[in-house]
Amino acid sequence: MRNWLIILGFTLMPGLSMAQENSVKLDSVKIDHDDKPSLQRGAKLFVNYCLSCHSAAYMRYNRMAKDLDIPKRLVEQYMMFTADKIGGLMKSNMPPEEAKRAFGTVPPDLTLIARSRTPEWIYTYLRSFYRDKTSPSGWNNIVFPQVAMPFILYRLQGVQSAVFDKDKTTGARRFDKFELIQKGTMTPQEYAVAMRDLTNYLAYMAEPAKIVRHHIGRYAMVFLGLLLVLVVLLKHEYWRDVK
Prior knowledge:
243 residues; alpha+beta; two-stranded antiparallel sheet
């Protein structure tokens, strides 16, 4: 009995740690791999703001161009900052040693981030940075406290502060709301849409074959529908003489 309790405890530990990490309420986000304009805008944000530090070492530029219907000449002219050939991988130019010296850690590869986390986590995280003078970077994040990443999107969103209050039961500090203290180039609504596009792109990048599966799935459903009609007609033909 004791051994079973120990096994059960180890089984529940990952879930408990995840629950503690995700104590902040995550916002829902619409992920649609058929929304090509959204994916294209997300790809633009990714190469302009994320790829300088983070790699996407399992994604190639030509695969992205094909899946998102982006002309190759536009990819080569405006999006290929870290590769010489369109068949190259989307790798960061920042050496790991320099990144570790600057941030204290090597920025993670983002190819599979939407699978290791969730789209909801990413969407909320990208909108939860706030100014914190006690942090080495000057920024902090409600979803990922004491994150090493500086907030490179602040020019778009603007600068916001976090307001905390005390839990009446435990007395612990609890997040209440954000307050915008400096406007960005986007309105809050426009920034939310932009982060949805970036999250949508990261979700696509984590599983690009999903677009192909959805495309094939439509033909499969049409085929099964036609097959059902033929099977029903064949059934009536067989049973006509029995009746």
